[in-house]
Write a structure and sequence with these properties.
Length: 187
C-alpha cells in the first residue's frame, strides 16, 4: 500500500522496497481556469555541491535522457488533459552517476509570464513513485498549498541516504521559471 506523504516528509525507498532499482516517477495536475496550461517536468541531478555535474545531468523536454542513461523523461505533455500521470520519468537507480547525490523534480509553467499563468490556476498537482518491476505505487505527495502567483514548484526529490535511496516531498514554490533554477544549479 502506498504511503501518502506531507510536505517535508521523507521515506527510505530502499528500506520500504528491498531491492528497488527500476522506478517510475509520475507527475500530474489539472487546470482549474478553463484555459490550457502547459506544465513541464524537469529533473536536476545534483552533486554534493548542489550543482549539475554536466549539462547532461539536467533532464527536461529538450534533453530526455541523462548523460549516464539512468534517467529517461517520457516526453512533454502540452495540456495536462486526462486522468493520471501527465508526465513521467523512468529511473534505474543502480545506473545513476556516482557523482549525483540527489535528483530534484521541478514542475514549471511554460511561458507563464507571457500568458499570465501561475500555480493558483492548477489543482490536484502530485508526484508519485512506483516500483516499475511490479507497477506498485510506493509513495505519493499531493500539493495542498495554494501557490497563487508562483510559476514553478520544486515538488520532490530522490536522494542518497548512505547506500540507500530516499524520497522527500518538497512543495517549494518559486518564481522566475525554469531559467531561475538552471542559473541556481548550473555548475
Amino acid at each position: 500500500m502506498a504511503i501518502n506523504l506531507q510536505k517535508s516528509q521523507s521515506i527510505n525507498l530502499t528500506k520500504e522496497v528491498p531491492g528497488l532499482n527500476h522506478i517510475f516517477v509520475g507527475l500530474g495536475w489539472d487546470e482549474s481556469s478553463g484555459q490550457p496550461i502547459d506544465c513541464d517536468v524537469s529533473v536536476f541531478m545534483l552533486n554534493d555541491s548542489h550543482k549539475i555535474p554536466t549539462e547532461g545531468h539536467f533532464v527536461f523536454f529538450n534533453n530526455l535522457t541523462s548523460a549516464c542513461g539512468s534517467v529517461q523523461h517520457q516526453g512533454d505533455n502540452l495540456t495536462g488533459e486526462g486522468d493520471g500521470d501527465d508526465e513521467s520519468i523512468f529511473i534505474k537507480l543502480s545506473e545513476v552517476d556516482s557523482r549525483v547525490e540527489q535528483m530534484i523534480f521541478v514542475v514549471t509553467i511554460h511561458e507563464a509570464e507571457q500568458k499570465g499563468q501561475h500555480f493558483g490556476l492548477l489543482e490536484n498537482a502530485f508526484i508519485r513513485v512506483y516500483n516499475q518491476d511490479n507497477n506498485e505505487e510506493v509513495c505519493m505527495y499531493s500539493l495542498e498549498e495554494d501557490f497563487d502567483g508562483y510559476d514553478s514548484v520544486q515538488i520532490g526529490r530522490i536522494y542518497r541516504e548512505g547506500s540507500s535511496w530516499a524520497f522527500e516531498a518538497m512543495g517549494s514554490p518559486f518564481a522566475g521559471g525554469l531559467g531561475a533554477l538552471v542559473e541556481l544549479y548550473h555548475g
